């Protein structure tokens, strides 16, 4: 039975609104998925994340297998119970993190801009990759220096122990700087690993767990299309788009477009996840291109570092509260935002002071604000598709419309 | 008009239950006052602190005058508005922090044990004291190295700008290692400073702001009694007990007892605050000795460092969750505790993992737990006095009774 129901389509784009059914409930799409890389949305409690309107979070195979260990989480009742989140959980396969070690500092280049990507650079104090083989990958743990092994089967076994609602297959995340030949070879291995993941899951996967394949193929249209076709035909429950998406946003949109174009028609009912992307303009464009779910470290990571999301495309949607110009600013961060800082009317001066003083409360407040900001925009996009007004709402959001209320 | 109403007295001790009326509402006593040293209860939002049952928080003159500055907070509408707390606020005078610099590492010795005392050692990266004069104290700011001046009048002016509900007078906090002669001389200066504070406040204090005097006198009974009598007769709205309370808990109880004995009778209606004390057994004994309010960095500081308060006197009421014996412990921290971690049923294993991973969420959860733990015990004591059952309840609490529910 397909896990995805499409409720509405935008006539002017590939956008659709729908619902993904999982063992722990539905996700209304299009949706953003906050990172709970290490079994917590950093600084937030589960109920707070849910109250902001989020229905799913993303845990990470690589980090959780090293600490505290998948077996332990399994013995303690699985990741949901471990972290106190009873909604859907998607787990990344660890491929991105393992290959980030191998590809060294190009991890951030993968998404073609700094401090971006799956699970994020400040969570990554990875060890060192020791060998990439057909069978899997050998690497040194950043926790204790021990030698670890991750394979397609191993990644699926970890995700089975975690008990996530959606598992991602183990892939090689090809970086941006490699050539077409490497990308083609790597993508073919990713496809062989896809089949091994699915075979393992058919045999051993926990009942009800969905599996998404991962499309690779770098920036090459034919490789992307071929990879998409392979993943779509393999019998996955959904499709995730990963790897190098290009050198600039326009190229990224092209690459994503190749994949979603290939998924039109026969494979329309597969839900589509775009890995590691979360900038406001990318979310809007991704929705127009037919993406259903997104994850990104950006809102939470920026929050911990004192950068707040604001409705201003001119300032790249963000503002660093540590700047001295906020030191005496009595105005709140944003009107109409439901986050604690904005609804309490706390001043930018206070938030700036907390950030400069490195107070936990500041990290918390700005993290919550950023998640509220993204949640509001995703809700606007969902409602717009249902109401047949996506073009209008997308334009308003792009121009920096302050909140959902403005569209109604 | 007296600010304090005594509603019930314990027949077997000096304990009393009552209400302190302030410009921002009442405080039911006996009560613990969480620290908001730097305009936030670290990691907590105001509503969460209130939801745990706290009615008042304590801000700090010394830290807030250096950063972000009292004038700025004043311009932004005062400390309540700045930090989003609309209940009562008491502000410490800065005396303790300034003299901690002068007395160097003996700051922690003052309360005769480590990591204790007003505003706490891990908040203290103080600069250096330059001169202690009759007029006031000159010191170097830990923020920017600038030379700063704090005097009785200056401390009251800062507290006026902050707009606290209860201001504390500026005192010399005499350390434990000085002799009787120094203590006597210092206490006399503290009394002169008390009169200057009250004179300034009569002229310039904000309407409705209460002023507590501070009793010094070290561990010497006659000096303590004399200091108490001087403070009680000076026209303060309440009395705080500060300075060196001795080398061990028994001596501390004696010293506190000298002060509260002296306050019996004519000065009974003055509310009594014990500065920098918050261990469970000290709270119980303090209540029996007639203390109405307490403040201490302990619950919040321990929480940030992964130590949880538990109902077990054998383990000094605390447990370090980083210990490996909790790594696989599926049980929650404590039954019947209303904090998020306990009410979600999060395992000790998860909390231990968060602490070892230095996750913000862990600091938050354990801080909230510790404040919930102390709030529950204070409520038990308040209710016990009202019900004439203090001896029974105090004994149960001392023996590690798990929660209020056990006494009903």
Could you tell me the radius of gyration of chain A in angstroms?
A: 20 Å
CATH level-1 class of the largest domain in chain A? Alpha Beta
Q: Flag low-confidence runs of chain A.
A: 105-126, 404-408
Number of individual domains of chain A: 2
Helix and strand composition category of chain A: alpha/beta
Key words describing this protein structure:
globular; disordered C terminus; homodimer; alpha/beta; TIM Barrel; 3-stranded antiparallel β-sheet; 15 helices
List the helices and strands and how they pair.
2 copies of one chain form a homodimer.
Chain A: E1 4-9, E2 16-22, E3 25-29, E4 31-34, H1 46-51, E5 57-60, H2 61-66, H3 70-75, H4 79-83, E6 89-92, H5 95-102, E7 128-132, E8 137-140, E9 147-150, H6 152-162, E10 166-168, H7 180-204, E11 210-215, H8 221-233, E12 238-241, H9 249-263, E13 272-274, H10 280-288, E14 293-296, H11 298-304, E15 307-309, E16 318-320, H12 340-344, H13 348-356, H14 360-387, H15 390-398
Parallel strand pairs in A: 4-14, 5-6, 6-10, 10-11, 11-12, 12-13, 13-14
Antiparallel strand pairs in A: 1-2, 2-3, 7-8, 8-9, 15-16
Helix pairs in contact in A: 6-7, 7-8, 8-9, 10-14, 10-15, 11-14, 13-14, 14-15
């Amino acid at each position: 039975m397909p896990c995805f129901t499409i409720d509405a389509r935008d006539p002017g784009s590939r956008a659709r609104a729908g619902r993904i059914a999982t063992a722990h409930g539905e996700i209304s799409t299009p949706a953003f998925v906050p990172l709970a890389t290490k079994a917590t949305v950093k600084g937030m409690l589960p109920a707070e994340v849910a109250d902001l309107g989020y229905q799913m979070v993303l845990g990470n195979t690589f980090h959780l297998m090293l600490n505290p260990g998948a077996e332990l989480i399994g013995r303690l009742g699985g990741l949901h119970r471990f972290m106190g989140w009873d909604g859907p959980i998607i787990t990344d396969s660890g491929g991105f993190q393992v290959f980030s070690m191998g590809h060294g500092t190009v991890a951030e280049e993968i998404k073609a801009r700094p401090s971006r990507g799956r699970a994020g650079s400040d969570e990554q104090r990875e060890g060192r990759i020791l060998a990439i083989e057909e069978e899997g990958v050998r690497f040194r743990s950043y926790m204790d220096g021990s030698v670890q092994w991750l394979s397609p089967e191993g990644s699926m076994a970890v995700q089975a122990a975690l008990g996530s609602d959606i598992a991602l297959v183990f892939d090689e995340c090809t970086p941006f700087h490699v050539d077409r030949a490497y990308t083609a070879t790597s993508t073919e291995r990713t496809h062989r690993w896809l089949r091994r993941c699915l075979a393992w899951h058919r045999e051993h996967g926990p009942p009800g767990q969905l599996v998404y394949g991962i499309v690779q193929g770098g920036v090459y249209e034919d490789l992307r299309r071929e990879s998409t076709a392979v993943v779509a035909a393999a019998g996955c429950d959904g499709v995730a788009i990963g790897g190098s998406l290009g050198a600039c946003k326009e190229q990224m949109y092209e690459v994503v477009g190749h994949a979603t174009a290939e998924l039109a028609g026969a494979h329309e009912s597969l839900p589509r996840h775009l890995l590691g992307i979360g900038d406001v303009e990318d979310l809007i464009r991704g929705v127009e291109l037919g993406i259903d779910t997104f994850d990104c470290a950006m809102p939470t990571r920026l929050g911990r570092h004192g950068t707040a999301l604001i409705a201003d495309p001119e300032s790249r949607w963000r503002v660093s509260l540590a700047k001295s110009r906020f030191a005496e600013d009595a105005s709140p961060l944003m009107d109409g935002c439901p986050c604690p800082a904005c609804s309490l009317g706390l001043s930018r001066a206070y938030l700036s002071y907390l950030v400069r003083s490195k107070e936990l409360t500041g990290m918390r407040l700005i993290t919550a604000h950023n998640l509220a900001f993204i949640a509001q925009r995703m809700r606007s996009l969902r409602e717009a598709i249902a109401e047949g007004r996506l073009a209008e709402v997308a334009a308003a959001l792009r121009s920096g419309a302050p909140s959902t209320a403005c569209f109604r």
